User: What shape does this take?
Amino acid sequence: MRFKHLSAAILISLSSSSVLASDEVTSQLVEPQIATTYINDAILPPAIEWHGKSEALLLDADDEWATPFEQNGLKTSPSYDKTFAWLDKLIEQTDKLKKVSLGKSPQGRDIWMIIASSEGAGSPEELQKNGKASVLVQAGIHSGEIDGKDAGMMLLRDIVIGDKGALLDNANLLFVPIFSVDAHERSTQYNRVNQRGPVNMGWRTTSKNLNLNRDYAKADALEMQHMLHAINEWQPALYIDVHVTDGIDYQYDVTFGYNQPQGLSPASYRWLEQSYRPAIEAELSAQGHIPGQLIFALDNTDITKGMSLWNPSPRYSNGYGDARHLPTILIENHSLKPFKQRVLGTYVMLEATLKTVSEQSTKLRSAIQQDKYSYSPQLTLTWKEKQQEKGWDFKGISYRLEQSAISGNDVVRWTGEPKLYPNLPVMGNSVADIRVHRPSAYYIPPQWADVIKRLDIHGIRMTRLETATQLSVDQYHLSQPVFSGKDYEGRQRVSAQAVLNPIDTLLPVGTVKIDTRQPLGDLAILLLEPQSPDSLLQWGFFNPIFTRTEYIENYAVEPLAAQMLQENPKLQQAFNEALKDEAFATDPKARLRWFYQRSPYFDDNYEKYPVLRQR
Assistant: This one.
């Protein structure tokens, strides 16, 4: 039986937000109160009782097909073993569901994916034969943010046992209940202190302490490598990454977004903004939720300063999707809303997504094709911020500032009372900064095998030279490298100034050629251009080129310098010019190094970027 009238005790203990359709009916709100369901409720802002039509999606706790979430008072999420025990039982009831492993985690757990199709496809080839667009939904990339798992389990149940089988008539669902499987099992009630449930939550990072949603570009984590392989094999038309956000308090319970129109997939952006968002927001609103854009305040202590419009780079799921022309939606449910409300909102969004993709698959696929084969002659590597023309009527929560006796700072105290902040300014990194012309191809010498392997994991097409080849190409000469002061995501990042120079060179056998006129050509450019923030160079894959390994002794460079000056009058003029710099003139080592760098003994590969560009 569906719940028609939920227990008041359960509802009050799990509630935390208004679902009012507008701010004109705030008088109907229940008095904000401190919830008592979760161990951290007492230190969180006040909660507001919530009821919505989507509560009708829930089954009674004693129903045969209730999920573990429904069985346990709507406040817990099952372990890895219990999740797949329940899903295996569901899969046994139908030919529509198949389960495949994307690969093993570092601790040996399978990363399972459920394939849901009306034909019961169990392989990429079988799925592609049905001609339908596939939606890939992943939950638990940050495994404490697990709403998508429980929502997806309910939705699959209703497709198989309930009355929603028609959702697969014109679309396929690829569902990864737990992406970061090892972190999911590092579960306690003391994880995610700022989040209202579930009672036990997994850890943010993998068993090797890597953040998977910083790993798309560099693809260091084994889990990420499995996911990228799955994307290449199963070829989804839409990718959904389910998170729970941090930060400020506000009325919205389901926020979602994607990269901006000035990015690398403008046609996909138009489909997402003009076709997808209106349909999803309408359904969420009709079911009692308050949807919104991705929300990041410029200053968490002063909402009136405005909001930030995020245009992420390829280290993040939605930035990566933009680069590889895979429409990608980042869901950020609001952490201060109770687990029940967030799970139901996610269910509504996933169901509405399948309906929308079913109805709009031709337009969606057309947009993807436009983006894949546009081959823009110029690409933007970095962006600068600008205030956007349109402001934001922000559905916030009122607050006051109090001076803390503990920290001595002003601390925000959210009141739980809804408040509209009209026409807030919006800042966004939407102005092109560093831009590059599209090369026809890149060449990577065979000794850089780790780089070549990483590009292959992304699915970028490559060919190898079978004979040594003389070519005229361009090469970046790097200078002024700046290394990060501490480790970041397992790597020492580096940035450098880059100047492009023409060279003639003999490329050895085994050199890899990457043509940029391919569907993943834009991604290749962002990974290989040294000034791209998520280039493999900046992630530290090429750090050895910044190491000097040959030197010259002072007793040798002194007579060498004198000989060079005698033989080259222009060099004497250049040296005299350099001596005008007082710091240089008073630094004996710098003066000797100046001659060494101009001598034939100097390492010709030092600070030369080994990836070559062909015009």
